[in-house]
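Sanity check

After download, print the first record. It should look like this:
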Amino acid sequence: MFIDLAVKDVYSTSRWSKDEIQAYKERKGDVLIKLEQFLLDGSNVLDANKIQKSVFPERDIDVFISHAHADEDEAIRIALSMEDIGLTAFVDSCVWGHADELLQKIDNKFCISEGWGNYSYNLRNKTTTNVHLILSAALQQMIKRSELFIFLGTENAIKIDDYMSGDGRLSSPWIFSELMFAKSVERSARKTFEESNESFIAMDGVRSAPEVEFSFKLPKLTHQVSFDEFSTWLSKGGRAEKDLPGRIRGLMHLDNLYRALGIEESQLSAPRFKTGQ
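Expected structure tokens:
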């Protein structure tokens, strides 16, 4: 990861329709969860590496978008806008439906003792903890491989009283985990590409019981911009060299964002594109 960025005062835009948003969800959510494929030698041992690869099939991304569940559509609008200028973006909420499906299948198979009609409390604690740790590790690796980490700082993500005061607390342990990792992960260089003979190769009901809520102090990211500033940058994308592939143009446009954030020019000196010798 090169830099982390908090986008403030995010509001809904109308550039992308509901149908386009739904199509994005379906495109990113086409994962078939088959519990049998994760079992080692047909036993009751689950392969964590296979789970990660199945639930997180997308490997090479430019931008990781962290957001509250209620802001999923706006996160997808941003992802679509980034795709429009050639960047690859990852919206973290698009995998959670698969995570819930996987966990339910595991619990149905392993957490109901013979003769019981309900889940075992102790067994389900074990499966939930392990699956969440597996997914957390996968998320962290995706953040590490991305170049830009973006957090959408909205009233949905930050408790309203803290949002207005500027202090900030989170109720989502997943957002907290992502922000803490983004703050501490080792910084890497920007992505560069070189030309090959074949392509451009990257170098780099029933009334339910009340839910328990937690409170996490909001980790402060290194950089922040307003949503208006961020949207202005997005709208100017794709104007770089027209003869280069869209993704390289998108990455070059990221450099314009980095300059606006005050990133030193020495960190941006390496060219995005190298012509083959």
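If your output differs, re-run the checksum step. Summary of this record's structure: DSSP finds nine helices and ten strands in the chain.
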